[in-house]
Amino acid sequence: MRWSAPGIVAEALAERLPADGLEAPAAFRAAHVDWIPDSPVEAETDLRLAALAAVLALRRHLRLVDGDLGPQGAGVLILSGGVFRHAEDLTVVESTLRDDPVLRPILKNAHLTVDRDYVLAPAGLLADAGETTAADHLVTSLVG
Length: 144
Prior knowledge:
By secondary structure, the protein is mainly alpha-helical. It has helices at residues 5-14, 23-31, 40-64, 82-86, 91-99, 104-107, 120-128, 132-143; strands spanning 76-79, 111-114. The chain is built from 8 helices and 2 strands, in the order H-H-H-E-H-H-H-E-H-H. The protein has a two-stranded parallel ribbon with strand order 1-2. Helix 1 (5-14) packs across helix 3 (40-64) and helix 3 runs parallel beside helix 5 (91-99). This is Glutamate mutase L. Pfam families: MutL (PF13941). InterPro entries: MutL.
């Protein structure tokens, strides 16, 4: 997320998402990719950026499937990445996702979880190699 933080803010503003005031923090993060938040305020800024990135990614995926996930919407949303794995509280991320007017109907019944054990990447590799049963087992382990 560090490298792409300014792009996240620019795209969020283009989609009229609440990203005002994040331009400078995003630029700082892109220029200092190894920086770790040193205060609760900075950690919250990271989560705001991550929440916007998640909203943008989900909106993009919905466009790819013409918004058609069926009447039930998504069943599970798996958040992946260090900012999610290391966050003590993901309330701001979940509320940003669930309150988005485009995503609200899609996520109304979705269970949100975090890929804390880094299983999505190997699951994708296994699926690409035709090992779908093993890949399904890994992904299923995320939702218990």
